[in-house]
Amino acid sequence: MDTLKIKNDSKEANRIKVSILKLNKDCLIQEKKVKIILNFSKRHKRAWFKETLNPGINSRAIFFKCIIPRCCISDIEAKYCFHFILFMINGSAFNLLSFVWEIIQSLYLLICSFTTAETRRFGKFFLELLIFLESRKKNQQTFDSFFPNLSMEILDIGYLVEIKNCNFSSVLRVFRQVITYHLVSNIISRNEQRQKNSIVFLHQLINQYPRLKINHTRLIRAIKSLTINPKSSTEILSRRVMVILDERFNRYTVKK
Fold first, then answer.
1. Looking at residue 207, what DSSP letter applies?
2. Peptide bond preceding 230 in cis form (omega within 30 of 0)
3. Maximum separation of any 2 CA atoms in the chain, in Å
4. What confidence tens digit (pLDDT) does each residue in 86-108 have?
5. Which of 5, 33, 189, 248 has its CA 20 to 30 A from that of 167?
């Protein structure tokens, strides 16, 4: 009995050693590939993101041709896409706020067309972008020291969201209001897939809510109006989302 156990342990140890060697070899290959890609992109990214009077052109191309096809494949790809954006846009004629605005404008149709798994993965990617923008709002000096060349021009998108006194905080506020509008529109629809996708997407962004009292009110009202199977996964997730929203109720930044 002991001999058999020792033999099995030895086989398992050898298997782990082989796996580690293989992973280390794969890691070295991957590191070489990453260096090649980084060097290539550094040489060409200025040509990719040419100066334009309409920053939405670059944003739309990157979002639909680069991000959408990849970020919905897996959770790790969603994370990779966020870092891809951070690297590619630093020092080029690419406006991050304009990029996020393009996503928000497309959010309604994305929720309508994604599968539940794709919605969850896209939510992970979008959450990283919102957290990144929030970090700039909290400490602009530190943020700019890490990303000195990152284009965050407010004026480039001020006309898009029709803000009179345009500043960074007011732009983020409008972003959240439009996101909430798209989520509520899909939650109150009669399409079960759209309802489920909206709840899943909201759950991914839950730490971004509530920031405005009106957003909280609209979301809670919409979720309570759902008529779905009480034992379904959507119903369980909906109740969880409402509990979290209510627990964060006292964290409003603007009560209107």
1. G
2. no
3. 80
4. 776 665 566 788 888 889 989 99
5. 248
